[in-house]
Amino acid sequence: MPPIELSVVIPVFNEEDSIEPLITRVSDAMASFSAPWELILVDDGSTDRTLTNARRALCHPNLQLKIIELQKNFGQTAAMQSGIDAAAGRLIATLDGDLQNDPADIPAMVKAIEERQLDLLVGWRKNRQDGLLLRKIPSWCANRLIGKITGVRLHDYGCSLKVYRASIIKQVKLMGEMHRFIPAWVAGVVPSSRIGEMPVTHHARQHGHSKYGISRTFRVILDLLSVLFFMRYKARPGHFFGSIGLAAGAASALILFYLAFDKFILGNDIGTRPMLIVGVMLFLSSVQLVTTGILAEMMARAYFRDDETASYIVREVFVRDQTNA
């Protein structure tokens, strides 16, 4: 068998009405793709007939399909990570399973990532088919904020339609709900000049309902703070906590030296002064932050030395050969 050029990874969760049309669209879109490719569907603990409907496509003779069933719902990031780990292609394309991303854009994106010599090509939903108030405006604000903080300027961080070089994305470990910030994580291992974007087609949702609401905005803000911390202090967390601790310690020293001068030189009573409490609290905070920084450094070194824990558990993997057997 010739080596696989492209792996198409699609995480799905409770998409029983979309899964069969999705497989058909991917197959039709890749019909003209000259190199070998594979489709990897990750069922993220669906509670409907998503897995059953997906397995019907295993008998398709011209489709190299792999279905990964996760043991429970681990979230989109973990599901995407499991698909990336299982991918055998030199390039990896990811997209959502709700039929809003158009698989017909994948061949053009594969061609573009090679011509532009990029490591990551992000889809840009230029004409996004979503609600203005609850989806477009929060997304626009989030994209501007993420770009400003991370330094990776993109129009659409939230588009799941992306094409990666497998050798690059497999260096990045996705955790929590960090799939929204994949370009920022990739920028941690390659220059941001090797990350680009391309306008893609976006369709309105046809089946089911969106898994996201306005509450996602608040989670994005919290996740963004985590991304900022990891991008700047992942390998040296002691600098983050230590800097704050030393600043608190310096403020505490100034206050306590002033109070000592006021007490022992000027002879004033300082026992009931709020400044004394503030100085003591700043001193204690300084000690706690510095020791937290030391512990964080120890944990970071252990993390980089031995980091083999997966963020998902696979229950079963289905491929066409097993079905025929």
From TrEMBL:
Cite the Glycosyltransferase 2-like domain residue spans from the record. 7-171
Task: Show the GO MF annotations.
Answer: glycosyltransferase activity
Task: State the UniProt keywords alphabetically.
Answer: Cell membrane, Glycosyltransferase, Lipopolysaccharide biosynthesis, Membrane, Transferase, Transmembrane, Transmembrane helix
Q: Name one Pfam family in it.
A: Glycos_transf_2
Q: Does the keyword NADP apply?
A: no
What domain of life? Answer: Bacteria
A biological process (GO) of this protein is: lipopolysaccharide biosynthetic process
The record's GO CC annotations read: plasma membrane
Membrane-traversing stretches: 240-261, 273-296
Supply the PANTHER family for this chain: UNDECAPRENYL-PHOSPHATE 4-DEOXY-4-FORMAMIDO-L-ARABINOSE TRANSFERASE, UNDECAPRENYL-PHOSPHATE 4-DEOXY-4-FORMAMIDO-L-ARABINOSE TRANSFERASE-RELATED
Q: What is this protein called?
A: Family 2 glycosyl transferase
Species assigned in the record: Ensifer adhaerens
> What is the organism lineage in this UniProt record?
Bacteria, Pseudomonadati, Pseudomonadota, Alphaproteobacteria, Hyphomicrobiales
